[in-house]
DNA sequence: GTAAGCCTTGACGCGGACGTCAAGGCAAGA
DNA sequence: TCTTGCCTTGACGTCCGCGTCAAGGCTTAC
């Protein structure tokens, strides 16, 4: 299959596939006319990349998974190198979520504090004495 | 005070201050020699910007806070427009944290599944039959 | 033969918040 | 006077994953 079809079947664009090739992540064979040619295995590799990208993995981080599949393993994460990436990503996510949660709490505190001093801010929610 | 001193006192760089000025966020008066001149109020504005930046606010999102201070209010969040930004940011943070938590769970599940099939991966933690 | 629709490479654009370099002006100390 | 260290503007570089032309070639349908 050619680049347009592969892109369509993976729900991405030809530009993206050329970009992956430029990064050495998804090289393509060439037909006699210079057109890129792909097969079903390439589709599988591409889907692996896309899934990880959707999870927020950097492109480089998908490489072990791709190489794992290309080595003949049934899944991209059937290799130790892929598991290392998983674990690192989990740690990164934990750190990030922790930071964001901390920031959220601080912003919420600031908001609460500020609302108590701004006209039209507080808007008592369920106390007596108001119909509008 | 001049740009270098202000930058140092706020823990940032002169480049950053010039950038803020180029965005109209922190304009500076000029001395007879063309040098930028700042006062203590500018330091307060700058600290407000930096605090919000550290929270992950976009530069544009700090503008209401800066204008609030410049309007003479005691705090950058003493104005309704600032509270609107706070609330929007809280919503963004909630969405983001939720997404990241979801991704974390999915990655953790993949890791668990994959570990059960890779040599050297599982490493039973507390079951019988292993001292090394 | 020609228009449509695919493909090719090359190269610039984007967003955000600056970093970094270049070329030069101004002020103060030895 | 010369050096040092601050300051000025201008402009390109960074990171990342592409989007978006531009100019042209191949193939197929009519």
UniProtKB/TrEMBL annotation, chains A, B:
Lineage top rank: taxon: Bacteria
Organism expressing this protein natively: Streptomyces hyderabadensis
Sequence intervals crossing the membrane: none
Keyword NADP: no
Keywords, sorted A to Z: DNA-binding, Transcription, Transcription regulation
Sequence ranges assigned to domain HTH merR-type in this UniProt record: 1-68
Keyword ATP-binding (UniProt): no
Record's protein name: MerR family transcriptional regulator
UniProt cross-references to SMART domains, sorted A to Z: HTH_MERR
Signal sequence interval, chain numbering: none
């Amino acid at each position: 299959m050619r680049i347009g079809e592969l892109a369509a079947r993976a729900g991405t664009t030809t530009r993206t596939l050329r970009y992956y090739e430029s990064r050495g992540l998804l090289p393509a064979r060439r037909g006699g006319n210079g057109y890129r040619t792909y097969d079903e295995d390439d589709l599988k590799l591409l889907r692996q990349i896309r899934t990880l990208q959707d999870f927020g993995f950097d492109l480089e981080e998908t490489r072990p998974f791709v190489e794992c599949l290309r080595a003949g393993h049934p899944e991209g994460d059937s290799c130790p190198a892929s598991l290392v990436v998983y674990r690192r990503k989990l740690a990164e996510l934990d750190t990030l979520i922790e930071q964001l949660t901390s920031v959220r709490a601080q912003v919420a505190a600031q908001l609460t504090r500020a609302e108590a001093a701004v006209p039209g801010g507080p808007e008592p929610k369920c106390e007596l004495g108001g119909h509008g």
